[in-house]
Amino acid sequence: MKIYRSSWKKHFKTIYANLIVLTMWYVLHASLKSAVIPSPFDTIENFIIIFPKVLLPHLLVSLWRITVAVIFSLILGVIIGVWIGVNKKADDFISPIVYILYPLPKIAFLPILMILWGLGDIPKIALIIIIVIFQIILGARDGVKEIPKELMMSVKSLGLARSQVYRHLILPAILPKLFTALRLSIGVSIAVLFFAENFATSYGIGYFIMNSWSMVNYLEMFSGIVGLGLLGFILFTVIDLCEDKLCRWVKVGKNTLI
């Protein structure tokens, strides 16, 4: 019963949010009376028509770039973050470097990446990696550092192997922070990818939107924006589902507090 209510609340919130956005969009369209802001109903109709053959290939390419970048960021970020979390000397050496590089606007590295690796997918994927990885490193490091020393000592006193300590203590401790880091970085990654896909490419949702804009086809431009929003919604939903599956104790704790 509780699961049904929770699922219903999620669906209700999604419908409610969509209705608010569509209402604001329609009010803006009706008040401006300009082709620059097409009707949301016309846009949705056009989106449905062009989605299978036109929009879907662009969305899949963008999704592939983000997915590859996130996988590499998770692997490298978790390894580095856990290492500096358990090793004070490594933390003293690496964390200051992370603090210097993390605030820099990563989009500034795109010309350098394009010079190093050409005009294909690699610089775009690399750009997303250097955005996501810092969040992952800091999330993993902080998750390790927040483990109580008493708990760490009690686990070691049981005679567990190092691999067992990582599996049963450290990994569960850092998972919630990793999902939070992913949420924070995915939104920025989509925005940066939108910009990066305007250079030397013919596929990607960013390219489609800007190409439609240059062709003064505002209906297709807004259809692309709807597709971009759909891509972000899917990614955030996948993250939420993975968190619900892998971090069940966090949800149980929240329900207990409530």
From TrEMBL:
Indicate where this protein is primarily found: membrane
Q: Which InterPro entries match?
A: MetI-like, MetI-like_sf
- Annotated localization: Cell membrane
How the protein sits in the membrane? Multi-pass membrane protein
Q: Which GO terms describe its cellular component?
A: plasma membrane
Write out the entry's keywords from A to Z: Cell membrane, Membrane, Transmembrane, Transmembrane helix, Transport
- Residue ranges crossing the lipid bilayer per the database entry: 12-32, 63-86, 98-119, 125-144, 184-209, 221-242
The ABC transmembrane type-1 domain extends over: 59-243
The question of whether Membrane is a record keyword is answered with yes
Biological process terms from the Gene Ontology for this record are: transmembrane transport
Q: Pfam families annotated for this entry?
A: BPD_transp_1 (PF00528)
SUPFAM superfamilies with a match to the protein in the record = MetI-like
Q: What family does this chain come from, according to its entry? A: Belongs to the binding-protein-dependent transport system permease family.
Q: Spell out the protein name for this chain.
A: NitT/TauT family transport system permease protein
Q: Which organism is it from?
A: Proteiniborus ethanoligenes
